[in-house]
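Tokens as discussed.
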């Protein structure tokens, strides 16, 4: 994130994921989300394409609102 903020011209895209430094059971909902993200990795060029590919696996509450 620091690189993207300091040198935005060298960062084409960025995904920020907040992970807590603790051991915890991962919910089934999050497991489906993570699996879906791994399946689309490198196969999409736009957020809309990602939304379409993930819509069956990811509940609506995880999808960012359109601007």
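Sequence:
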């Amino acid at each position: 994130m620091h690189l993207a903020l300091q040198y935005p011209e060298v960062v084409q895209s960025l995904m920020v994921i907040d992970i807590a430094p603790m051991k915890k059971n991962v919910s089934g909902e999050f497991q489906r989300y993570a699996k879906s993200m791994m399946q689309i990795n490198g196969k999409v060029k736009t957020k809309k394409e990602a939304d379409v590919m993930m819509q069956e696996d990811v509940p609506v509450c995880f999808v960012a609102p359109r601007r």
